[in-house]
Amino acid sequence: MSTNKMDVKQLRIMANTVRQDVIRMIAEAKSGHPAGSLGMTDVLVTLYFSFLKVRPKKPKDPERDYLVLSNGHICPALYAVMANRGFFPKKELMNLRKIGSRLQGHPHREALPGLESSSGPLGCGLSQAAGMALGLKMSGKKNRVVCLTSDGEHEEGNTWEAVMFAAKYGLDNLIQIMDRNNIQIDGTTDEVMPLRSLKKKYEAFNWSVIEINAHDIKQILKALEQADKTKAKPTIIIAKTIPGKGVSFMENDYKWHGKAPSREQAEKAIEELKKERLRIR
Ligand SMILES: Cc1ncc(C[n+]2csc(CCOP(=O)(O)OP(=O)(O)O)c2C)c(N)n1
Ligand SMILES: [Mg+2]
What we know:
CATH class: Alpha Beta
Radius of gyration: 17 Å
Bound molecules: thiamine diphosphate, magnesium ion
Strand order of the largest sheet: 1-2-3-7-6
Number of strands: 7
Number of helices: 10
Strand content: 5-15%
Distance between the termini: 29 Å
Helix content: 40-55%
Largest sheet: 5 strands, parallel
Order of helices and strands: HHHEHHEHEEEHHEHEH
């Protein structure tokens, strides 16, 4: 099974492509979640184009790695990455949120091959991923499970049950990547429910913790490599991101959590991203 590894420059270019796709998709749908989608694009691109063992044409391959998207609302970025990776035709991206579409507003695993879980109700993905990781371990299998979560989900109790569970069973085949973007639906996490030091909390729960700037592809690659080598503990990569990354008027503004850009705003965003693309080295 190929991981189809891209180099760092190719990953940066792909992330720019995906960001443009995300803007076009959400603008066309007239609804969706741009902030988290743009914030986690670098992570998703690095996972699918350099780390995860997946076979787009054989999505149920028993040797594959599993990606569980717990914060389902950022699925536009996942869909765009999957389409660019060859899971389905890119033109289908424009069907986001349309009636009967395989690209539902929140992921529906039975609708789209390659999706490993359905999500939308927050706080459930880490339990699902931990269960998968335990099952694989008990079967003596080498497949890895990567679970993307958000900081908003850490304001929910069930996340912490999964955190305890994964540590108890020493799930070193589980890597959680948390989108630490400091926002949730209607404000900053500090205003709504302060999370304080997530690093200290996870260490206290006996997880291995890595904190990174998740817009630096080299840091993402290094963290994944370290997580992969860690034994006897699950790893969390606390991915410090800028919500809305790459679009100046969206960056760090929680109001873009779940709002579509107008046609004019989308054009401006694409223009900015095209300029940024020329600067990629
Ligand atoms: C169980 C549950 N409660 C509430 C919601 C409504 N909701 C959707 S997104 C969201 C904010 C979650 O924060 P985060 O995932 O950090 O948002 P982001 O950083 O992507 O803007 C909320 C409360 C939900 N989807 N599921
Ligand atoms: Mg958040």
